[in-house]
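#lab-general

N.A. 3:47 PM
ok so I finally got the sequence cleaned up, no stray characters, all 452 residues accounted for. can someone with queue access submit it? mine expired

B.Y. 3:52 PM
send it over

N.A. 3:53 PM
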Amino acid sequence: MYSEQILAVLKKMKVKVGDRVNVTKGKEIFEGVLMPRIEVGDQDTLSIKLNSGYNVGLRFDRSVNIERVGDGPKLGSIPALKLKESKELPSISMISTGGTIGTHVDYKTGGVFMCRSPEEILSTAPEIQSIVNLKNIIRPFTLASEDMLPSDWQKMAELSAKELNKDVEGIIITHGTDVLHYTSYAMSFMLKNLTKPIAIVGAQRSPDRGSFDGAMNLICAAHFIGHSDVAEVCVVMHGSSNDDYCLAHRGTKVRKMHTSRRDAFRSINDIPLLKIWPNGKIETLNSNYRKKSKGKVVADTKFEPKVSLVKAYVGSDPEIIDWHVKRGFKGIVVEGTGLGHVPTGESGITKDPLRKKYSWIPHIKSAVDSGVAVVMTSQAMYGRVNPYVYRNLRLASNAGTIFGEDMLPEAAYVKLGWVLGHTKNLKKVRELMAQNLAGEINKRLDTDLFLI
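B.Y. 4:20 PM
back already:
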């Protein structure tokens, strides 16, 4: 709530939060919508959302004059794109699931929430209708991505297979960015015999902001679906912090690497497949990809939800492994350090009985002996784990740990859930985890792949 001084002025001028106002301070005039004061904001600072979409804070004093000029935007007033069918353009489907790309500002509270329909999302990028023919639009649910469950991946995969087996060139999935890469992994494993592309698209900035990135991501995704020969699940997002181009990242080799940058998504241990400009120009960066073909796409959505991702760290208690086993978990992915290390208490010449207490080895062995699959990955992200370099790595390997090659921890987590959905036999699990099922494992890593 604003200070009593500001509230008195607002009442006198008959101005309410959410109204469109002109605020004069000195020689400057600011036009926009009066926003509520955020919880941690200065009570004596007015918050105005300018016409550009950016917010400005104005310190209130006697020189400030505020005038109501009209009603502000109302919820539900977002224009929806009226779809026009074009038989000359490649047809695509769209699956809308929520996220920042589908948000709208509530001018009464100042927060954004997921309320846009797919047609309202598309209204931010009307140019898309000159690139592709939007034939089918589906909205199975509307969620912040962090609230997703494996059952949502299964539903998306089933819908995707159904759409891909129609007369369309591919699918755009709009999605929240926080766990967008988890969904790209799941779609990559669950959709078998993929003959057409899927572009998973989100936005780091909400549509009310001048820096909204979702519109360009949608446009580039439309070019990717309609005018490339890729037939893989890809994440299509900004390739730089500017509005110049997007990158198409392989679905099993991508990760969100920044909380707020528009180019937050990066290929890890891989090169992006394509560079895509909003004018339709496409440059191939990595020609090693599955190409479009004919054939029926199959949704293989069996998934074991009792899989966990745990982190080894200094002083970490290995009894976390026992906790998961007792609660019926069928698989555990460990984020080890370096090449896939966990504390062993036997890694150097310094001997201390206390260190043995923190050894993960007996707990991993006990879990494996009880039928739980344990997969080792690295917190380092780049590079691959290796069970043969250090003694403690061999101890973990001898305990039954499956080393996850160059898979990202999150990718290994999703893959293990998918594998365990098909078999609980640890020998077969080990075999499948070692196979490159959807581009998640590279046999050889080029040193130039680091931090590109």
